[in-house]
Amino acid sequence: MKLILPQKVVEAAQEREFDLQGYVFEAAPEQLRTPRIVRVGLIQNKIILPTDAPVLNQITALHKRVSEIVEVAAFCGVNIVCFQEAWTMPFAFCTREKEPWTEFAESAEDGFTTRFCQELAKKYNMVVVSPILERDEIHGGTLWNTAVVVSNTGQFLGKSRKNHIPRVGDFNESTYYMEGNTGHRVFQTQFGRIAVNICYGRHHPLNWFMYSINGAEIIFNPSATVGAVSEPMWSVEARNAAIANHCFTCAINRVGTEYFKNEFTSGNGKKAHHEFGHFYGSSYVAAPDGSRSPGLSRTHDGLLVAEIDLNLNRQTADKWNFKMTGRYDMYADELTKATQNDFKPNIIKE
């Protein structure tokens, strides 16, 4: 169902030239629980400046653009907003070059971008999920692909690192950072329990599952993915995860085609090129009952506002009982055996 937004909000989005959509996910009335209404905001955007512009100028331009959209999200009553993967920079991990891309890395706890998000959070009473390229100075300046979570009070709540790193086509991310070491953290916020399954992790059902097992009611999936690689799967993966895990999922993807000055190859025998495809946006929200919103634009910046009733999670779980019937002890035992060097597949032969 469409969410009716004030005309001034619609006009603000038009003036700022981004796609604005709103939807409602309702739950059935209950006798003992009041509705748990939360509004989430998903932001997708292009980079602003050319990829060879000065690093600080690129970051600052993106801060300015996203702050314009966040202001409209606040007008819409958004409680939790999530940005796209590595939102402060071009998705340059296709190039395999270290400079200048590693210069975009910041401290998760007190970096330039985290301080920017803290100001937004305090100003608008909004939880902010900010996926960045993190530099961990405590551990030798190691880089990580990390989502920072800032409370609506403006306090740094914590961080969650990307669990699964792709080695697919031009996604050469292990040149820069490896698999995360923060496990499946869930963040208790004033508006509900949230988790962040970054990009490639959406292809791994157990990744979604473990966030759910740890109590996530909303799982965000900030991404940067291109049409030739993943678009046929995009519309179903987060939706499937919402169904399987009795929770809401929010899939976010950047938009645009990013051009890099130096050519790079894909290791597939084809000619070198300056870009690796179109980021197709299409951000959406999915509910545990199998419903989902339409996606945002494939080509334009956008804000998707979803008003969700978290009571729907338990209502759906009571109907389908996936966790009750999950037989997790059986799978835990079999997976433990399967990870041993002396594992023998359970195949019956004549």
From TrEMBL:
Residues 38-310 form the CN hydrolase domain. Signal peptide: none annotated. It is an enzyme of class 3 (hydrolase). It comes from the Eukaryota. Gene3D superfamilies: Carbon-nitrogen hydrolase. It is found in: Cytoplasm. Its EC number is 3.5.1.6. Pathway: Amino-acid biosynthesis; beta-alanine biosynthesis. The keyword Cytoplasm applies. The keyword Transmembrane does not apply. One of its GO terms (molecular function) is beta-ureidopropionase activity. GO terms for cellular component: cytoplasm. Keywords: Cytoplasm, Hydrolase, Phosphoprotein. GO terms for biological process: beta-alanine biosynthetic process via 3-ureidopropionate. Belongs to the carbon-nitrogen hydrolase superfamily. BUP family. Homodimer, homotetramer, homooctamer; can also form higher homooligomers. PANTHER family: BETA-UREIDOPROPIONASE, NITRILASE C965.09-RELATED. Catalyzes a late step in pyrimidine degradation. Converts N-carbamoyl-beta-alanine (3-ureidopropanoate) into beta-alanine, ammonia and carbon dioxide. Likewise, converts N-carbamoyl-beta-aminoisobutyrate (3-ureidoisobutyrate) into beta-aminoisobutyrate, ammonia and carbon dioxide. This is Beta-ureidopropionase. It comes from Electrophorus electricus. The gene is UPB1.
